[in-house]
Design a protein that fits this description.
17 helices; 10% strand
């Protein structure tokens, strides 16, 4: 049965901008979030990257695309579950108040027929049409280019609201760089956080610095890491569903920082609906721990793929002096 709500949303979806010039910068996004925090109104900032595009492509079992998703969702993931998650991603794109898009994939629409060609041709189309980050373009392999094409096609399909604000997909890093997260963690009466057991060392340090103001929800790790804790795929899927049921703000406008991969999208939508301000925190939590994940992002922003700047570490963030009032 068709999803009539999604059908209606698709009919109203907005056109994507042609370049990054149309996107909000970190200061503007910080002001929008600060207003919601101050007024106690629900909001969601969501960023959309490669994995979402692959989920929405709904690859068939036994294909490289399906193998890629199994690494994130578990070896026993079913097409029906992938379809459920794809619908959840589309609904989250429609609900988000601030949407982060890959600025290096903005430009003319990509014809869907491009995916029917060989990998080498897909890469050629992308490099001609879009200003892909130089670090990534120099290293990308042809099969990975297909994933980028799926990402661009997903961007074209997202039913983004006409009144939603658009920014870049690395806005979480930009917000950390201007001190917004620093001010939030130091001043907010409470902050909720969702991440996996893999990040417990940095979570414990945050708890030491923030005390009971930090409310921590543990989510499953990716399957390869979850195996360390004795998990299995069925257990993981059930844990995600339980988390959806349990997350809720402790007060109107409570911020929630989510570092949970593709699952961040539906989690943020639920928290927003319940009156909280959900922010797609992503790899910033890795940088808090001094872990140089997302080398292409680090290279693009700082010129080096394997070093986290000191001011992005947790210690560096707590040494900053910005106040939430600075972003009002």
């Amino acid at each position: 049965m068709p999803d009539l709500m999604l059908t209606n949303l698709f009919q109203r979806r907005r056109r994507l901008p042609m370049s990054a010039d149309a996107l909000l910068d970190a200061s503007a996004v910080a002001r929008l979030l600060s207003a919601r925090l101050r007024d106690g109104r629900g909001a969601a900032l969501l960023r959309f990257g490669d994995t979402g595009g692959r989920v929405l492509a709904r690859p068939a079992p036994g294909t490289p695309g399906y193998d890629y998703l199994q690494a994130f969702l578990g070896a026993e993931v079913t097409p029906r579950q992938i379809d459920w998650l794809g619908r959840a991603i589309l609904h989250s794109a429609a609900a988000a108040d601030i949407v982060g898009l890959r600025s290096d994939l903005l430009g003319p629409d990509l014809p869907a027929a491009v995916l029917a060609g060989p990998d080498e041709e897909v890469l050629g189309h992308l490099s001609r049409l879009y200003p892909i980050r130089s670090y990534e373009l120099q290293r990308i392999k042809a099969p990975a280019a297909r994933r980028l094409a799926e990402t661009r096609l997903a961007m074209q399909r997202f039913p983004i609201r006409a009144d939603a604000h658009l920014t870049n997909a690395w806005i979480h890093l930009d917000l950390a760089r201007i001190g917004f997260f620093s001010a939030l963690l130091r001043e907010a009466p409470s902050v909720a956080l969702i991440t996996s057991a893999e990040r417990k060392p940095v979570v414990r340090r945050m708890q030491e610095m923030m005390g009971p103001r930090l409310r921590f929800y543990e989510c499953p790790a990716y399957p390869a890491a979850e195996a360390k804790f004795g998990g299995n795929h069925d257990f993981l899927w059930a844990r995600w569903q339980t988390l959806y049921e349990n997350i809720r703000p402790s007060r109107p406008g409570e911020p929630l920082l989510i570092s949970a991969g593709i699952w961040t999208k539906p989690l943020a939508t639920i928290f927003r609906r319940r009156g909280g301000v959900a922010v797609d925190f992503g790899s910033v939590l890795d940088y808090f721990a001094g872990l140089a994940t997302r080398p292409a992002v680090l290279a693009d922003r700082f010129g080096t793929p394997d070093v986290v700047p000191d001011d992005l570490t947790l210690d560096g963030q707590f040494k900053r002096s910005e106040r939430l009032a600075d972003f009002m």
